[in-house]
Amino acid sequence: MKSSVAQVFDYSPIHIVRGKGSHVWDARGKKYLDFIGGWCVATVGWAHPKMAKAIAAQGKKGLYVPALFHDETQEAFARRLCNMAPGNMGRAIRCTSGSEAVEFAIKCARAATGKPTIVSINDTWHGHTYGAASLGNACNKKMEPCLPGFLKLPLPKTKEQARRVVKDFDALCRTRKDIAAFMSEPIWTNAGCFVPPAEFYPAIEAVCRRHGALIVMDEVATCMGRTGKMFGSEWWGIEPDVICLGKSFTGGYATMAATLVTERVWRLAEGIPVYATFGWLLQDLAAAKANVELIEKGGLVENARSVGERLLQELKPLERLRKVKEVRGMGMIFAIEFKLPMAAVILARCLSRGVLVALADANTVFFSPPLSLSPKEAREGARLIRRACGDHC
Fold first, then answer.
1. Is residue 192 part of a domain?
2. Does a structural domain hold residue 189?
């Protein structure tokens, strides 16, 4: 692939030119089953007529309302988000991306507690801006110095590891007086779709409440039904103080995100800068509204859960292959981890067979199909992936 001026990842040579539902086509006319889904973005599928209608209708008005003024459409949607979310959310901060939503969450946690340190999980991704990159694993040596005020605990893959992480977090809160919050994804997506043990987040929340730290959920990749519930946090019954939204928030039809905070946190943090010039443009808002309505009315949360379970069952037999370490998934987020660094080879085989997947790392293939994926499409995708892995049954 020749060098690109508009920088992209260089592992895929295809040029996508159109989409429909769960499929996309390249410039040569080849059809692919889209299992990447924009990396936790796709919800209602591509070229959805109701999405196009909503965006076009608002676009004809050609109106921009800056945050200096009240807009009832924005206000109504903010209230809707707060009411949908777990916990007791009272405010929605308007953002343009998941990274920005994470930045506002960091600001809110520090401002509300008067403490500087955020505890997160190592080897995870929270965005590319400096705060988000420092919170996650994206602040590499070429970007150093990374921002101070972040501590990382190991990613727990087993019950025993989860207990140790909870114990270590509790020790940090007891021995240090500067812990503002614990901030994490409900499911560690970019790390390779690791689902935490059932008792992990309730125990983390208990530590936070005991020591006056906030619990912040980065739901950028897991919101709007991606995990089989509207919010990933709901699986563990926790009540976050702050929630970050993005990606599936608009289903790939707009650049829009949000940070939700409880009224208590907002009152304590009030005064931090929250102005976003292009936060919640009315065209983007029209897309987000239509997307949420289609997810709710179309039963896409339930579809993600039921079809996702079927897809996982179709792929689990791959664990019988000597090369495969584990097949993981929840809702419409999946990963296949290999024992050797062969994920790029599997990706290329998938492309040649007409199914799009991505890489979490050298050993792990990652995919997150649209929430609207049908049972038939799930079976076909599983068949193509199994063949790419060398299972020809």
1. yes
2. yes
